[in-house]
Amino acid sequence: MNTTPDVLRILPEVILTITGVLIMVIEPSLPAGANRKSMGWLATVGVVAALGASLYQYQLPPGTGFFGFVQTDAFSAFFHVVICGIVLASMLIALDSIGGPTGDLGEYFALLCFGAVGMLLMTSAVELLLVFIGLEISSISTYILAGFRRKSARGPEAALKYFLLGSFATAFFLYGIALVFGATGTTAVYTIAPQLGSSQMPLLAIAGLGMILIGIGFKVSAVPFQVWTPDVYEGAPSPVVALMSTAPKVAAFAVLLRVLYGALPALHTRWVPIVWWLSVLSMTFGNLGALRQKSVKRMLAYSSIAHAGYILAAFTALSPDGVAAASFYTFSYAAMNVGIFAVVSHAGGFDDRLTLIEDYRGLAYRSPLLGAAMAFFLISLIGIPFTGGFFGKFYVFSSTLHAGFVWLTVIGLINSGIAAFYYLRLATAVYSKAPETSPADSVPRPAMSLLFALLLTVAATLILGIVPGRILDMARAGAGTYSSVNPAADANTANR
Amino acid sequence: MVPIYYYLILSAILFSIGVGAFLIKRNIISVFMSIELMLNAVNLTFVAFAHHWHQVSGQIFVFFVMVVAAAEAAVGLAIIIAIFRTRATLDVDRIDLMKL
Lengths: 496, 100
Known about the structure:
Largest sheet of chain A: 2 strands, antiparallel
Shape of chain B: elongated
Strand content of chain A: under 5%
Oligomer: heterodimer
Order of helices and strands of chain B: HHH
Strand order of the largest sheet of chain A: 1-2
Structural class of chain B: mainly alpha
Number of domains of chain B: 1
CATH topology of chain B: Helix Hairpins
């Protein structure tokens, strides 16, 4: 028996829930025209506290709480820290780019808090019921956030597309859970694995696995389930895109690791080929799609599809190194992607004044700091050494190569080369002289909160690129929680 | 006693009808209804398996699915109203400001 009080196992979630409720209670009592940014700072304090609580969870003895519903271990703590960091940065970005006293800002920050609760629960849940509830808390909050510019024509359209395809995916995910429950008689992640061996209905479990992969595939926007991504990113406000292109995906990848490695390792001969194809299609389609985009946000949407492909590649390795590489890549992807959306949000504002790549011409002359930050994140997204993006790709592809997937590695490396073209196109636009008047001339001076957000993301990207060892050790500790990960597993299923 | 396969086949058919309607229907409300149909097909599967395994957890799952479906409906209908206010149409083919 462990003696850790259950509430400590969900401490970050409790803190964020209280913060969100406080904001909802205080906000209506403010006078009508008053500035609501104080609510944002309150939310920021809550997220910083949740980040502290997540770091504290590292020191808890690993174990489960609430009758085996949540489990805190090195794995969940790692993803908690990443998600809290993303939410913190995206709050600071929102504080910078939302101007004037807007009436519904209180809800905005409360929804960020509630969404974060759902994502955090997804990473620590070891019961599929709680995974499902966490997924829905996070999804429903982000559906609303995506349509936050409800007066503009594009806001509700983005929200509608996100909502319809998101709920469609949820239904598939649920059906998958139901079928796995039917095959094994349980929905607890770590009792599914032993039950699966004695199951009389293995076909049900395989069908369930397929359905779960479809559901998660939508959430992480893997090809062929990516159709919603560019439209939603284009229509949603940029500070929201900073959050929803990273945090829900990080949480969904954590769920996928738990389900595939924790619950269904016995079916790896079935899911490794499927994930192989998802990964190759996402990388290739994402990068080729990004090449012909003119809008910056659409280009970054396709780039996020490609990055989902890189992360999925690590899943096929079936080794602790693969799990660690996937965790490490989600962290570095989150750092650089939130960072670049910090620049995009500030340059374009809440209403997207700058949309096309051409509009960014001369940004570096208007604001050297923003230009430099953007170039730095683009370099990291390409994967040039001394940035987080380089070591992310390095670990992912060394784990796939180690597992014997030569073709997957080759395709991945070719894709990283293709990706350089479109990232560099944006970087050259930022650093080339504007003709005479460029839309980039209207970019305001960054506020203090944006500088904090940039500092946070630049520091994370640099640390991941210069001293990756410590973070990788943390990711490895998380991977070590999967006893099912078999190092000797199948160099012979490889070589597709 | 009705064998469990009957329930599974029925719920698979309902789920497929939901998927088909989601892809074919042009009115947003109908698309939304087909998602509800898919969720209810899943509920039927859960109840059938809960009976098969003599496990109450499957039935508890159904309650949570219903609660979540209600929350989703509230948000979804709000989004649909926002769409109707800006476009005055509920045809998915005409919600195409951003091309796919």
